[in-house]
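Comment on the following before class.
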Amino acid sequence: MIRVIVVAAAAVGVVGLGVVSARAAMQVAPIRVGSPAPDFELRDQDNAKRRLSSAPGKFVVLTFYPADATPGCTLEARSIRDGLNDLKDRGITVFGVSVQDVASKRAFCDKESLNYPILADTGAKVANAYGVRMPVGLAQRVTFIVSRKGKRATVRGVIESVDVKNHARQIIDAVTELQSAQHP
């Protein structure tokens, strides 16, 4: 069961959304809604540099996942691949992020015909910055929804209970909820 929690963060002047399972509701999100989103520069599957601060779109979604080409991660990547046009139509840019290298990303993209950037966080610096690195060195499956005003990027939502088969829809629903909360 998934429930949506909308939190007003008056101190920072934003409205945040967290989607969590009942189990995860007892835990604190790795980076809290309303916190500044750590900027980064990572290489994608084509070895191109990607920065959070220069990503297009109203919202940037960072989908951290444990490992390329594993069953759950493949289902999640396919969901985003198949829903990418709907995501883009809503001004959402998606970056997948895991700790494997660029060659692993390239192979994963080729095998699954992925049509969005997946980023190689080989030193796990970004996973550490977002608080999602597991003790085994992999990233947890957590999604962050980030919006920017000028150069300031803020975490607006966190999805801790990712539905790998329907993750694109889950992202769209979360962003729609955020937009509704901004403009009641």
About this structure: The chain has one domain: 2-182. Confidence is low (pLDDT under 50) at residues 1-29. DSSP finds four helices and nine strands in the chain. The longest helix spans residues 71-89.
